């Protein structure tokens, strides 16, 4: 489990520049608005992360502790088993065949607990991929709609069902009514240049590794406001009309539209502080590694064996931390507009890891082992 957490934390640090996608291929399924939209380019994450785990980390001199090697080996075996099982039932090699995914949560009914959503997976899939998923998910019924076969559970054509279908290289999973509309030749709304559709399409064209867009409905915001939680947290959670964040291969983008001048000022201060923390986090990771490695002795038998193994190769360990961090001097482009109540920040380095520092989490986790 620990190795899987480390794998997740390091994954984006290992991201490569993704191949360009056809934005229309993603957006042709998009609803007019979504409370939550998320996109991940698996090509940019899966193979680089696997290479990091199998060809980079495990070959470092400081990573040769028996317990550490055993944990990584167990994690690798678990991942390989999962991928083998997926290949066996679906014919899909997750390392090569899955290119990108997106999901839209377009409606929440808090009284009934039903969620309206649509998920997309694009890749090199066999023709019976949706049928295989339906079998695994227990969806016994099917109906031909247009050029697609929709698989679902009996009685689930009520707009909230879990259903699956396939359109060429796209597998769609979600509410029955949303899949039905797309099988019948759905045409996405155009939206104006200020719409979520336009913002998401523009950002996808930039080639993000990951993209998240939040645009909560009035009902969701009312629910949060009436939750009885901290007024401070409620302010920050509901003080914006929309919020977008993109992880690029070489940095991060943040965009937000505040509801009023007061919240704009607070978000502006918050983002200024976050940028400073991200700058400090780069050098902080390097400093933490140096201080920790210099302070500990391999003769200390109270230390975790993995830590003692690292101490035999202090210089190599420090060099590895420097490889996965920057000096904090990444570029900041601030196009925020107080009059429009828009926060717009772009942070860039030579690589994502010079801006975003997931290794901090790894170092903190190592500290808990002392």
The gist of it:
42% of the residues lie in helices and 22% in strands.
Question: What structural class is derived from the secondary structure elements?
Answer: alpha+beta
Number of strands: 12
How are strands sequenced across the largest beta sheet?
4-5-6-7-3-2-1-8-9-10-12-11
What share of the residues lie within helices?
40-55%
What is the radius of gyration computed over CA atoms, rounded to a whole number of angstroms? Answer: 23 Å
Number of domains: 1
Q: What about the largest sheet?
A: 12 strands, antiparallel
Strand proportion, as a percent range, falls in 15-25%
The best one-word shape is globular
Instruction: Sketch the topology as an H/E string, one letter per element.
Output: HHEHHEEHEEEEHHEHHEEHHHEEH
Description:
It is a single chain. By secondary structure, this protein is of the alpha+beta class. It has one domain (2-367). The chain has helices at residues 2-11, 23-27, 46-56, 66-90, 129-137, 176-183, 196-205, 218-225, 231-238, 261-295, 305-311, 314-323, 359-367, and strands spanning 36-41, 98-109, 114-123, 141-145, 148-152, 163-167, 170-174, 210-214, 240-248, 251-258, 331-334, 342-348. Strand 4 (141-145) and strand 5 form a beta hairpin. The chain is globular, with a radius of gyration of 23 Å. The two termini are 19 Å apart. The model is unreliable at 1-8 and 360-370 (pLDDT under 50).
């Amino acid at each position: 489990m620990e190795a899987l957490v480390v794998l997740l934390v390091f994954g984006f640090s290992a991201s490569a520049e993704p191949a360009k996608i056809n934005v229309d291929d993603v957006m042709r399924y998009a609803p007019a608005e979504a409370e939550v939209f998320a996109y991940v380019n698996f090509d940019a994450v899966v193979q680089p992360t696997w290479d990091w785990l199998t060809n980079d980390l495990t070959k470092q001199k400081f990573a040769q502790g028996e317990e550490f090697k055993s944990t990584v080996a167990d994690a690798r075996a678990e991942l390989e088993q999962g991928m083998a099982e997926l290949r066996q039932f679906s014919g899909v090699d997750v390392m090569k065949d899955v290119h990108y995914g997106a999901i839209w949560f377009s409606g929440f009914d808090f009284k009934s607990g039903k969620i309206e959503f649509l998920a997309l997976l694009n890749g090199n899939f066999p023709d019976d991929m949706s049928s295989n998923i339906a079998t695994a998910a227990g969806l016994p019924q099917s109906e031909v709609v247009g050029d697609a076969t929709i698989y679902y559970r009996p009685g689930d054509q009520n707009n909230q069902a879990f259903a699956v279908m396939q359109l060429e290289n796209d597998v769609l999973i979600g509410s029955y009514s949303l899949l039905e509309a797309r099988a019948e030749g759905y045409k996405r709304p155009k939206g104006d240049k200020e719409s979520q559709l336009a913002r998401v399409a523009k950002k996808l064209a930039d080639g993000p590794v990951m993209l998240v867009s939040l645009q909560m409905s009035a009902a969701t915001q009312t629910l949060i406001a009436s939750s009885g939680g901290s007024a401070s947290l409620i302010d920050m959670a509901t003080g914006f009309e929309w919020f977008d964040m993109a992880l690029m291969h070489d940095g991060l983008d943040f965009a937000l539209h505040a509801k009023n001048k007061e919240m704009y000022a607070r978000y502006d201060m918050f983002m200024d502080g976050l940028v400073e923390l991200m700058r400090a986090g780069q050098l902080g990771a390097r400093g933490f590694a140096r201080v920790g490695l210099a302070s500990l002795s391999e003769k200390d038998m109270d230390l975790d064996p993995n830590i003692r193994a690292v101490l035999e190769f202090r210089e190599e360990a420090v060099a590895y931390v420097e490889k996965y961090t920057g000096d904090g001097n990444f570029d900041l482009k601030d196009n925020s507009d107080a009059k429009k109540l828009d926060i717009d920040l772009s942070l860039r380095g030579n690589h994502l890891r010079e801006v975003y520092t997931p290794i901090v989490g790894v170092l903190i986790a190592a500290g808990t082992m002392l």
